[in-house]
Design goal:
By secondary structure, this protein is an alpha/beta fold. The chain has five helices and seven strands. The protein has one domain.
């Protein structure tokens, strides 16, 4: 009995520390309701279409077109505060262009829940890194996505207290 109390106390203390430290909660597809899923998709889908559209002749033109689907974040706290992500949106950052490829990261926020019944968090966010090869090959591929385990603190900081992280794969489909 004493061991059980000790174990339960440790769990309670760990949970309290996580809450007090402001650790973000991660949700899975089962914990995301349709309202927030659609809010994320409203920002992510046009950007993903642009990522996979390789009709541009140069990588510079490709990145320029992507920038019209997302706001550019400069990596600073002040820059994060100016993006308006607290209302929902998408930011592109850490963009690198070489002769062979483009690499970039994206951050998507659902913004606060807009109506509907809720069984999940108040707001969702996700992030990922993309590598786009200059030569997509005969199959039109050449886009690789790496899911991030964590998103930049400066971007998370502009979101509401009820915001929760979801892996980018939660929004596939």
């Amino acid at each position: 009995m004493q061991k059980q109390r000790g174990a339960m106390s440790a769990v309670i203390i760990a949970a309290a520390c996580a809450v007090l430290a402001g650790c973000s909660q991660e949700v899975t597809v089962e914990n995301v309701d349709g309202v927030l899923w659609r809010q994320v998709a409203a920002f992510e889908d046009p950007f993903m279409s642009a990522v996979h559209d390789r009709s541009d002749l140069t990588l510079d033109a490709y990145v320029h077109r992507l920038a019209s689907s997302a706001q550019q974040w400069d990596g600073t706290d002040a820059g994060a505060a100016q993006l308006g992500l607290e209302d929902g949106g998408i930011a592109m950052y850490d963009v690198s262009i070489s002769a062979e490829k483009v690499t970039l990261s994206m951050f998507v926020s659902s913004g606060p829940r807009r109506g509907g019944d809720s069984y999940g968090p108040d707001e969702l966010y996700t992030c990922a890194r993309f590598t786009v090869n200059a030569d997509p090959g005969p199959s039109g591929g050449g886009v690789n996505r790496d899911a991030f385990e964590e998103c930049p603190d400066a971007l998370i900081a502009v979101l509401g207290d009820g915001a929760a992280f979801a892996r980018v794969s939660v929004f596939d489909g």
